[in-house]
């Protein structure tokens, strides 16, 4: 039997370079009159498994979450509460004794599963900058069956204490986050998506797949326009509208994101990475890398946190 690898796609490529990791998995049970304030470092994900609660964020109207609803909050403080105006307690205090599970208030009317997801790689900026402050996926939304299966698995794994259950929960959280991201791509207005909007435009999406599949190529506008079956000027205008940058600039930036990933995670020296990405001289590679990342490849390899 021959198993073929699926065709690559730009979002998967960006996720790979973003080093998406589930930082922790948690469970919260609450009841009565209650409110907890959370401060996510990057992305906080939660699923309402039972009951209902309010999601409150500064500058936004309170939103009621019900059983089956999922949400992702990006780098902004938020409050989960039994009411729209209940005074909140710091969640860190409630989870101080057990980082994985907590009970708050009176009773257990509400149950949430969730956790924190981090993106730390060179591709993280592309995702973090285009994610909305909060993203809610309602239980009745199209595609909720996929969420339902993942949530059921998460609910079964959480209390099972089987070998590998924590790893399973973390991987399920990663999958739920990707489903949430897909939902955002498919449902948001184009102006809310920035470069993600290009994934919904067939002519642009095909070119993006090619760029991400072959970062070592020195992509030219003529090649990309021919691939999209458009004129140079028409393609350039559409690409800039969808992606926010010119086609050749996007290809160069992606090439340098891949370079940063290889310098950060591999053992190859700068010259080897430069050659693997099609550069015939270290000087040309260094100039392109410095223009995108602000430091030289050698400096980045020594300290990628600069």
Automatic annotation (TrEMBL):
InterPro entries: AraC_lig, AraC_XylS_family_regulators, Homeodomain-like_sf, HTH_AraC, HTH_AraC-typ_CS, Tscrpt_reg_AraC-type_HTH. The keyword Transcription regulation applies. Gene3D superfamilies: Homeodomain-like. It is found in: Cytoplasm. Keywords: DNA-binding, Transcription, Transcription regulation. Residues 205-303 form the HTH araC/xylS-type domain. PROSITE patterns: HTH_ARAC_FAMILY_1 (PS00041), HTH_ARAC_FAMILY_2 (PS01124). Regulatory protein of the TOL plasmid xyl operons. XylS activates the xylXYZLTEGFJQKIH operon required for the degradation of toluene, m-xylene and p-xylene. This is HTH araC/xylS-type domain-containing protein. It comes from Pseudomonas atacamensis.
């Amino acid at each position: 039997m021959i198993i073929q690898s699926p065709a690559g796609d730009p979002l998967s490529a960006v996720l790979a370079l973003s080093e998406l990791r589930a930082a922790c998995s948690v469970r919260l049970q609450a009841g009565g009159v209650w409110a907890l304030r959370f401060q996510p470092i990057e992305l906080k994900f939660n699923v309402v498994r039972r009951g209902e609660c309010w999601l409150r964020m500064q500058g936004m109207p309170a939103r009621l979450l019900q059983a089956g609803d999922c949400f992702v909050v990006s780098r902004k403080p938020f409050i989960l509460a039994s009411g729209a105006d209940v005074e909140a307690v710091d969640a860190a205090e409630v989870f101080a004794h057990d980082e994985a599970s907590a009970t708050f208030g009176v009773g257990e009317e509400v149950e949430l599963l969730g956790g924190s997801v981090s993106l730390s790689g060179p591709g993280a900026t592309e995702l973090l900058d285009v994610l909305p402050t909060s993203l809610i996926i309602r239980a009745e939304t199209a595609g909720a069956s996929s969420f339902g299966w993942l949530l059921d698995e998460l609910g079964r794994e959480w209390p099972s204490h089987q070998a590998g259950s924590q790893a399973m929960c973390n991987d399920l959280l990663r999958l739920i986050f990707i489903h949430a991201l897909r939902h955002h791509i498919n449902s948001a207005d184009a102006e809310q998506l920035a470069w993600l909007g290009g994934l919904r435009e067939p002519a642009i999406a095909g070119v993006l797949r090619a760029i991400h599949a072959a970062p070592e190529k020195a992509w030219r506008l003529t090649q990309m326009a021919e691939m999209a079956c458009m004129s140079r000027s028409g393609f350039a205008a559409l690409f800039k509208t969808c992606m926010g940058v010119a086609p050749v600039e996007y290809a160069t930036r992606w090439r340098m994101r891949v370079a940063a990933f290889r310098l950060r995670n591999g053992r190859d020296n700068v010259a080897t990475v430069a050659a693997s990405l099609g550069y015939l001289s270290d000087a040309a590679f260094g100039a392109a890398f410095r223009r995108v990342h602000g430091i030289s490849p050698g400096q980045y390899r020594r300290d990628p946190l600069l």
